[in-house]
Amino acid sequence: xxxxxxxxxxxxxxxxxxxxxxxxxxxxxxxxxxxxxxxxxxxxxxxxxxxxxxxxxxxxxxxxxxxxxxxxxxxxxxxxxxxxxxxxxxxxxxxxxxxxxxxxxxxxxxxxxxxxxxxxxxxxxxxxxxxxxxxxxxxxxxxxxxxxxxxxxxxxxxxxxxxxxxxxxxxxxxxxxxxxxxxxxxxxxxxxxxxxxxxxxxxxxxxxxxxxxxxxxxxxxxxxxxxxxxxxxxxxxxxxxxxxxxxxxxxxxxxxxxxxxxxxxxxxxxxxxxxxxxxxxxxxxxxxxxxxxxxxxxxxxxxxxxxxxxxxxxxxxxxxxxxxxxxxxxxxxxxxxxxxxxxxxxxxxxxxxxxxxxxxxxxxxxxxxxxxxxxxxxxxxxxxxxxxxxxxxxxxxxxxxxxxxxxxxxxxxxxxxxxxxxxxxxxxxxxxxxxxxxxxxxxxxxxxxxxxxxxxxxxxxxxxxxxxxxxxxxxxxxxxxxxxxxxxxxxxxxxxxxxxxxxxxxxxxxxx
Amino acid sequence: xxxxxxxxxxxxxxxxxxxxxxxxxxxxxxxxxxxxxxxxxxxxxxxxxxxxxxxxxxxxxxxxxxxxxxxxxxxxxxxxxxxxxxxxxxxxxxxxxxxxxxxxxxxxxxxxxxxxxxxxxxxxxxxxxxxxxxxxxxxxxxxxxxxxxxxxxxxxxxxxxxxxxxxxxxxxxxxxxxxxxxxxxxxx
Lengths: 512, 188
Hints:
The complex is a heterodimer of chains A (512) and B (188).
Chain A: H1 6-14, H2 20-32, H3 34-51, E1 55-56, H4 62-73, H5 92-98, E2 110-118, H6 151-158, H7 170-175, H8 188-192, E3 197-204, H9 207-220, E4 225-230, H10 231-236, E5 250-260, H11 261-271, E6 277-285, H12 291-296, H13 298-306, H14 321-337, H15 340-345, H16 369-377, H17 382-387, E7 400-405, E8 420-425, H18 429-439, H19 447-451, H20 472-480, E9 485-495
Antiparallel strand pairs in A: 2-3, 2-9, 3-6, 4-5, 5-9, 7-8
Helix pairs in contact in A: 1-3, 2-3, 9-11
Chain B: H1 4-12, H2 16-38, H3 41-57, H4 68-86, E1 108-110, H5 119-131, H6 134-145, H7 150-157, H8 161-182
């Protein structure tokens, strides 16, 4: 493990936040270095400058304003009322019912999930963030018993209302937790929105690059991501050791979005035209997501749920050689899916305009750690670059296409070994797609999936439209729902360092 | 003065006024930190009110596994981050201080070191603090203003302790540079 910079150590020393070993190191250095002693003094002065800033007192009307607001807008859910609004009080029956479906795990390298949550009443969540000092006294407080709760609260408890409309965003709910989110734990918020939640799963080659592209694209569409974070970190909070125990063996990143539904639709359509997406799985609503996926691979959902809490943006700070090797393998696998000639001449990272795909963003929006990482690492999305250094294996010429597919049989796979491969003979692409559809009836594979198989069919003259003709119902559903604002959680996952590289077995190799 | 738990119990029993006592008990500390996190007392007032209302609404979820203020502060911090994100500030073109930081009623709850810093220095420090990258500023404010330990900051910011350490260091480093540019040598 690399030693933190001495300056950083000095700052922590100033705060008494160093280990005994570090303390000895710092004091030894201070003894022999006048420059470091001077630096310590300067840091101390900076620290004192901030500590000495005046602390403004709260406005005297604050308490009265709060009371006025809680009396007019809030019915306090009593602890004895069954805690209908409590995230921890999700009815087990309902949870089990939603968990009854078989598991699902992505088999290639990287997976994205989009949780698409509609706010039933459109823009404006009715949340008044302004102080209402001086407002006239409100009507008498509503009765605070569950049976007499306001219709709005009943709706919230029944899952028909977005918590944010009650002033509780996902972040708020998470902030109220006194304990870190546990693996496998799914916040009730998710269920509250299940009916209106759209779940898409993206399998992409390079999560960093794709995420960067996502940020650029969203920015171009005027959609501001609220959060990006590695879900593994979000899931584990400060306990990073848990990262290695992720049953799916995937590292994840999360994007949390909020915006106009039409706008988001357009952005997602464009996002899905990124050729680095190996496949797009559409789960329909969250209630239809295979339950074991949630249970066995909860890092995704839990990570998405917890991500909005944090302001940090963290790529893999120091991608290990193993991870890079895995990414390289994944990249070469993608090349195998694609037409070799096309693979040879295309490089999304270097010719973004050609594909109408945004260039990889240099860092996640709003992030700081990422840019540091990139400085340190030199080239964060290493997989994309290395992809071009890998010749397309001769065995992946058009005669056969290897499609790494997710296993959905049985219980949730414990790790990536449960994935398998489907060898697609030339000309049978559509049949295989149909077969896969039958195997996974809740998934529809959209244009990207078929595009990766297009060597079996005449390549389109232009990029296929974002909403494929094969999924008119979904397209219609998307557009017919186009009203109001939606919130979107995107999770991208990639293999952890040290993951099992057999998931990237050569085309034609027998599945595990 | 009643204990937080006693006041919470009274709230849960239906005595809304008890929550008013809770607000009064914690409002100055919370508000003082929010003002520095947000760089505006007006924003701090909005966020503090939101946080208290949200806390009241979810009081039944508070299990007492942590101090009430810690729980409240997490809610408020989260609200502040979201508020700042929603109302992302753009630096004023002429470099003047953004309006709104002066205490709304001119009061100062706690004024450590008052008189030790000139008004001009306070203004410069505050301005430099507000110019820091959000994560750095937040970490530093939680450390210096709120007085949290690294472990507690990590919990509030939901990041590893190592990240906290790094952010605080970067915050101090950047602040030192900004101040050295704007302060006369005699002020340093």
